[in-house]
Every structure is written in structure tokens, then in C-alpha cells.
Specification:
By secondary structure, the chain is mostly helical. The chain has one domain (2-245). Helices cover 71% and strands 3% of the residues. It contains eight helices and two strands; from the N terminus they run αββααααααα. It has a two-stranded antiparallel sheet. A hairpin with a 2-residue loop joins strand 1 and strand 2 (23-26). It is globular, with a radius of gyration of 22 Å. It starts with a helix and ends with a helix.
């Protein structure tokens, strides 16, 4: 009976805390972020090895072909939205964010052998999603001011009429919250579902757990894609005006 009560009393949303100089850090989020980063570095080294090998043989490897396909799609999206020449760094930025968030979401399938049973995905911690969203939005504003000047970039705040200024200000302030909470909400919901599925009897647990993990991986892919796509769309505001371009 005590084991059953322990299984039901699942604490969702709690984090392993590290206390450093009076500051509380979420250790599981940090570990997950570091693991995702190491996996990305390993993939980068594998890609580099594939490129060097294809340069000798003249035949591109599978990893290189997959990566070139992803880069090509992102470049096409950026070109159609804002033009690559406007801000060339948006392509590597969007690809980096997509890859990091995807790997970070997918590490939730790695078993740990203790509680929690699986490594918590870093995006289930709202602090990480806020940091990513703020980085994107602040970079967007900085780039816009550098490309178009302060007055030129923020002129849209009073378009089509100055009376729209309060609503446009609210819209700009809400952007990082919607970007962060969209990612956080979907990934956090996955951790709740895993905790609920853990209440199934052991003989039945494998079936719903396997099905949900596959679905969770699909959700992680979609959310990484949406975050990268919204990054490109937000940076479209730095696109030169048509009159200025002519």
C-alpha cells in the first residue's frame, strides 16, 4: 500500500536544486542543457568528418546530405521572408536553435535508472525557454536598430496611426512570453503525461509509455521547428522597406 501511495504522489515540476553562493540553480536543467550541447558538438564533429571524407571521395555522406537539406530549407525560408543579405546570421541562428531545442526535447527518452525515470527535457523548465525567447527578441530589436536606425525600425509602432502605439507596445512586450510559454507548455505537458502513465500497472506500463514517448518525440520535433520558424518570422521586421530597396 505504501508503494502505491508513493507512486501516486508524483511531484511534477520540481527540480534538483544546487545552491551556489546563495543562488538556487536547477541542476537537472543544467545537466540536460549540457548533455544536449555535447550531443550537438558530437554531431558537428561527425558532420565535419563526413565533409572531409566526401571531399576526398567526391561522394557526400548521409549526414552531410541531411544537413545540407535542412540548411537549404532554412535559407529558402529566410530568403522568402526577409532576404538573406539583410541579416545573414539568421540562417545559422535559426538552425542552431532548431537543433538545440530538438536534441534537448529528445533527451527526455533517455532513462536515468532513478527518479525521475527519464532525463527531464530542459525546455520543461520555463527559465530556459524565457532565456531563449529573450535572446531572440533582443537580438531582433538590436539588429533592427542597426539596420534601419532607431526611428526607421520603430516607425511601425505608430503605423497606420499613432493611436495604435499602446497596442503595438503591448504586442512587442508579449512576444517573448508567447514564444517561451508555447515551447514550455507543450514540453511540460509531456512530463506530466509521463508521470501519469507511471501509475499504470507494471505489466501494462510498457504499451502506453512506448506510444507516448513516440508521440512526445514528434511533439518535440514540431516545437523545435515552430521556434526556429518564428525566429525567422520575427526577424522579418528588419527587412528593408520596398521604397528604400528601390
Amino acid at each position: 500500500m505504501s508503494g502505491h501511495i508513493e507512486a501516486i504522489n508524483v511531484q511534477v515540476g520540481e527540480h534538483i536544486e544546487w545552491h551556489v553562493f546563495g543562488i538556487s540553480l536547477h541542476g537537472d536543467t543544467i545537466i540536460g542543457t549540457v548533455v544536449a550541447g555535447l550531443i550537438i558538438v558530437a554531431l558537428g564533429l561527425a558532420l565535419r568528418r563526413s565533409v572531409m571524407s566526401s571531399a576526398k571521395t567526391g561522394v557526400p555522406g548521409r549526414v552531410q546530405l541531411i544537413w545540407e537539406s535542412i540548411v537549404g530549407e532554412v535559407e529558402a525560408q529566410v530568403e522568402g521572408t526577409m532576404g538573406i543579405k539583410t541579416a545573414p546570421f539568421v540562417v545559422p541562428l535559426a538552425i542552431t536553435l532548431f537543433t538545440f531545442i530538438l536534441i534537448a526535447n529528445w533527451i527526455g527518452i533517455i532513462p536515468t535508472g532513478h527518479h525521475p525515470e527519464y532525463m527531464p527535457p530542459p525546455a520543461s523548465d520555463v527559465n530556459l525557454t524565457y532565456a531563449l525567447a529573450l535572446f531572440v527578441i533582443v537580438s531582433m530589436h538590436v539588429t533592427g536598430v542597426r539596420k534601419k536606425g532607431f526611428k526607421g525600425y520603430y516607425h511601425h509602432m505608430i503605423t497606420p496611426s499613432p493611436i495604435m502605439l499602446p497596442l503595438n507596445i503591448i504586442e512587442e512586450l508579449v512576444k517573448p512570453f508567447t514564444l517561451a510559454l508555447r515551447l514550455f507548455g507543450n514540453i511540460f505537458a509531456g512530463t506530466i503525461m509521463v508521470s501519469l502513465i507511471a501509475l499504470f500497472p507494471a505489466w501494462l506500463l510498457w504499451a502506453p509509455e512506448t506510444a507516448w514517448k513516440l508521440f512526445d518525440m514528434f511533439i518535440g520535433l514540431i516545437q523545435a521547428f515552430i521556434f526556429g520558424l518564428l525566429t525567422v518570422i520575427y526577424f522579418a521586421s528588419v527587412r528593408p522597406d520596398e521604397e528604400a530597396a528601390h
